[in-house]
Each structure stands twice: as structure tokens, then as C-alpha cells.
Design brief:
Elements lengths: L1 E3 L11 E6 L8 E8 L2 E9 L1 H4 L5 H9 L3 E2 L5 E2 L6 H4 L7 E10 L5 E11 L1 E6 H9 L6 H20 L6 E2 L4 E3 L5 E3 L7 H23 L6 E3 L9 H9 L8 H11 L4 E3 L23 H15 L7 H40 L7 H11 L7 H12 L5 H10 L6 H13 L3 H14 L8 E7 L8 E9 L2 E4 L3 E3 L2 H17 L18 H6 L7 H11 L2 E12 L4 E11 L5 E8 L2 H23 L1
Helix pairs in contact: 4-5, 5-6, 10-11, 12-14, 13-15, 15-16, 18-19
Amino acid sequence: MSTRGREAAQVAEVTRGVMIDGPETADRDDAVWVARHGAGWSLTAHIADVAAIVPPGGDADAEARRMITTRYLPEGRHIPMIGAGEAHATLREGVAQPTLRVSVRFDADGEAIASEVGRGVLAEGFARTYPQAAAALRDPNDPLHAMLADAHELSRVLLSRRRAAGALAFYDLLQGFATTEEGNLVRLGGALRNAGYMIVQELMIAANEAVALWAAENDVPILFRNHRASAVAPSRDELLEDLSSFAAQIGNRVLVEKRLAMLMRPATYAPTVTGHYALNLPAYTHATSPLRRYPDLVTQRMLFAAADGAPPPYTFEELVALGEEVNAAIRERRLRTAERYRTEARKETRRALDDSSFERMDAETFRRVLKLGVTESEPRSDLSAEILRRLDEGALPLRDVCHVLFDAEGPSWLAVKDRLGDWLAEEPSRAVTGLSVYAQDVVGGPISEEHVVWAVEATGTAQLPRFTARVALRLGSVAHESPGRTAASKKDARSHAALALVCALAGIADRSHDARDDVPEPPSPAERARQVPADRHPVMAVNEYAQLGVISGLAFDYERDGTPHEPVFTCTASAVLAASGLPMSGTGTAGAKQAAKTAAAADLREKIDGAAVSDG
């Protein structure tokens, strides 16, 4: 038995454990026990000794290798990976069983300071469902309450530590969302929306990390679990910000889920360590579910051999081949599953389109129906009417507008597309987002400055400010460019350039235009003063007067009086009225510097308003 840790801390042998699983679970392959040790904790994970039931090379092993994982079916049914051997290997209450034991000591901050991996015995096991574990945590009279309270506290510390280290970790048990090990968001069923689920997730991550580090430090080749993000993924801080704001993004949750799924690559198995991006760990493995995952069983065999001082059951080259075999099989299974879901989704969407009950559809269902409907050259009149109804009511998202503009083809769609073009022209800045949607759909993922290229130059004078903007889409071998569009601001110039290109891509008349070149009559001081709303904060108001040219030379000066404990600040706000050159000032006194500034600005504004009206 080997020990890992910077301190020679003794890791006590614990023979008790609680199996916490779903209500219908029959394949219990791990049990945990947590205890306080001073300011820290000890964690013991007992893992079912599947290696003794399924030796390598036999028929049961061949079948497990073919299946790779247990298959879970509707209504709680499942096809065991190890067949009939599952009933003998699964952990059970009231039965002493041999296990792979992983023991870890943590300090008060949740840092692992010592660990052991070797053979163990689960002499006393308790089976609880996730809801039962959560109920015991709330009930001081439950015999498992104290242990589960320690386990819950440790899991919270471990989660906080992971988040602080940059792991893509998130739980929203109230609304039923959590992240997977690969950083993807998943929806939790009712039985998982409780503290029992979080305890198991955090303790299993800790146990798997401990095994991976132990194996790496003791030169034991196992199947490590490696993970990376997409090469075009934004910074880790941006992804963490997405997760931290997820609970408040009710309308954008689907987009956040899809974005994370698109940026996170599937994790893979290999006997070499490359780290785990989503967990932000240098080494990680899967060792806690040998009943359900073949890589865990392979790793368990290697761990037992190392702990026993026996020859390893696999060579390094065999582990490489096994990892590649498992990765390929999982990848193929995912592709088949995704295609099956797509096929079923297309059938369901076709039924919804044929049903024509568009007004009763929620936004997400209507989006799927719309995407299918625009592939037909002849638009259905009821679908066209519903598109325009939702547009008029402000209930048609910009992405849906883009689906129609860019994907609908044929002259029969022109009437609808023209109406959508008019809607874009009412607020041309929408077209900038529209170009991003077009580019993302073509690229099939996130876009960068290399895909959408802007050129903006100043083309006016001091008396007549003008900016000319052009935008180009560089999408592989295909490029689209807008004409130059000129406006009084960079934003408006960009918006009209984008609008021109959107119209071209949609095949409709150009709604963009250039700014007029005639110089308008300058507004009077009174007209410029009226541009600042009466309820504007006084400091903001006088600053806007300066920007509008109503005043010049705006300055704030301060004097301090009173005692150190009760200071008194006097602020003087001074400026020159541009129309007449008349200097004016306002004063304010308060116990805080900012309050004095606000009072002085209010006094100055009152004088500016009176002078501007008389001059106007």
C-alpha cells in the first residue's frame, strides 16, 4: 500500500461507507465515509472489487470491453456492462465485501495533504438514495446525520476550492442545473436536486483526482482522463463569468448551454497525463465506477497490481491501444446518439409544422418549426402570418429574423423578407448582430475578428464630422463586402454598412443610406440646454452642458474645514457661458466631498438654465 502527500499524515483505515445513488439504482459501485480531523477532514471511498469478479481475458471481460459502459434504458431498466457478475460485485448492505480503498486527508482549506490507494474491506455499508441522504442531513436524529454533515461541509469546501482555482463548476439545485466533469451544463432530474447529489459529485471528483495523482507519482500507468477546450474557446474567466451569471440568464440559458457544449471537447482516455481543462486539474482519472465503465475496471486492475506488488496486467502499449479503442467507440456512440436525436427532432418538428398551431407554441418550439419551414420554397400562409404577428408584437427574436432572411429562398418569401428588412432598418444596429449570426452559422462555431473585418475612417471636417465604414465577412474561401456607408458617428456608419450587407445577403433591396451633407442650423443655447433632461443628476447634467457647448472651462474646486472626525467640504463649480462669455459658478457644502460636488453642480445648473433661456 502506498501513500501520497507532502506531510507524513497517517490516513486511518475506515471500513464503513454510505452508498448514495438514485432511487432505482441496482449497480452500487462506491461508498464514502467522511470524518473530521482537527480543522480538516478524512475521506474514505470504497470501490467495488469488480476485478475479482471479471478477470481480464475471459468472456465477461470481452463483453464488458465491447459494451464499454452499462446501458441505461427508460423506466429504470439497464443492461449491465459485466452481465450476471454485477449481482456479485455490487456493494450491498449487511455484507462485508473487498474493495479498492482510496483514503485522503484534507486540511481546513480542502487541500489534500496525504492519501493512500490499496485494498480495503467495506465491513458496514449503508444504502441511501440522494433524497434520503439529503433528508438525513436535515435530521439531527438520523444515525448518519453527523457523518453526512461532515461530508456536506467537506463537499462545499472542495467546491469552493475548485471554483477559486478556475474549474468550470456550477450547481443550481433549486432550478435543476449542474455542470458535468467536461464543463457542459446538464439538467437534473427531481431525485438529483438536493445536497446528496452534490456530496457524491464532489467526493468522487476528489477521490478520482487522488487516484490519478497517486498513480502519476508512483509511476503506475492507468487510463487517465484528459480533457481540453476548443482552440477557439475564450478565456477561462469568460467561461466562468457565463456560469456565474447563468442563474440570472433565464432567456439565454439555451444559448449558454449550447455555447459551452460547442467549446468543450469530449474528454479522452490515455495512459499519459495531459491534464483536465474543465476541472482545471493536472491529472484526473475514472476509478470510482468499475461496474459501469470499462476504463475504471482497467484502471482498478492496474491499481491492485501496484498495491500488491504484482506484475501489471497490461503493458503501456496495451493501455495506449485500449484508450484509443475506448475513445473511438465512445465517439461513434455519441455520433449515433446525436443522429438519432436529430432524426427524432426533425420528425417532431415536421409534425408541429403540419399541425399549424403556431400561436400556442413557445419561442423555442416555434424556432425549430421556423427553421424547418424556411427550407420550403413555398411559404405556408399561416406560417408567414405568424412570423409577422410575432414581429409586430416584439416576440420574434433577432436570430429567428435572421433564419428567414438568410435561409428562406424563392420569390414567394420576398414579401415576408421585405417586411423583416424594414424592421431591421428601423434600428440599423440590429444588422451588426445579424452579420454575426450569419457568420456563426457558416463557420459552425464562435467567430473572431478574422471572420468579421471592419474598416472605419474619418471622412468629415471639424464643422461636419463624418465617418465612413465598410465591413467584410471572410468565411473560408468565401468573402462578402459591404459598400462604404457614411454617417455622423462611427456607430451609425457601422450600422448602415452592416445593414447594406445584410440586405445583400438576404437578396432584398438595400435599406441603408448615407448621412446628409448639409449643415443644419446650430441650435440656440436654450435648445441645447433643453437636450439635457430635467431629472439628470446635477454633475452629469453640467458635464453634458460642456459636451453640448453650452458652457466651457468646467472645473470643480474644493476647500476642507471642520475637524478630522467631522470634516466640512465646500465645492465651487465654475464655467463660462459660451454664448455670452459670462463666467458663472455654483457652490455647495456638505460633510462628504461627493455630496458637496453634487450641491455645487445643482447650483451651477440652475444658473446655466436661467442664462440659457434668456440668451435663447
